[in-house]
Amino acid sequence: MAAIMGLTPMVAPMIGAALLGVAGWRSNFAFVALVAVVFGLYLAARLPESLREKRAGALTPSLLFDGYGEPLRAPGFRVYMALNAFAFAGLFAFISVGSFILQGVYGFSEKAFALAFGAGCLSFVSGSFLSSRLMRRYGLTRSIAIGVAMLAAGGVAMLAAVLTTTAALALMAPMLIYWAGVGFVLPASTASAMAPFPRRAGAASSLIGLAQTLFAAAVGAALGHALSGSALPLPICNALTGTAALALFALSGKARVAHGAR
Length: 262
Hints:
Layout: H1 2-23, H2 26-46, H3 61-72, H4 75-105, H5 110-138, H6 140-164, H7 168-194, H8 201-226, H9 233-251, H10 253-258
Helix pairs in contact: 1-5, 4-7, 4-8, 4-9, 5-6, 5-7, 6-7, 6-9
């Protein structure tokens, strides 16, 4: 799933550009609507009901809030949710301001920026692929440990590069390390967070998504206000999120063990 999410940003701009050249900007929205209808019909016809036993009143507010409260009361869940949010925020930081920095500060053309973005997506996919292999052999904890180390190393190296050189490649190389680290952390932290709550999987997953979205939105807004013709806001953000993820992982051993870390 993470690999598919990483490939989509690489393929979507090419499809959008082709449609734009042939049928104008409205065709992009028509294409998205068509894809939604096709997949909706397919899922309605082929996806079986996952609820084994229907419960009366399952959607009452008290039961719904209790479903969210059970994961949130677990310290280990909060740790993994925060690790997930830190990793995703660093990724979203580039999505938010990457074009302004690479094109506005480093002078990338539109094509060069697309290639840089594609390289980042490929790095994310590669990290996800390697993480899945490591998880099967060494467990989730080892995969997360490697991922947060890559986040911290990549973020700090990005900051050092911007402070010491004006070469775009010096910024891009550690950024790819960061993106690969995101590919390690996101799937492994999500699986670790949700593992003890098989009956609350939907609630746990939605809480992780909410934390991702809220933190990423706050980071994106802060970066937007911080832009001032300098590349510094992006590497500062990635250095902070990367080192925060590493520190949280290092200091949360008891909570993770109690959560059933493996």
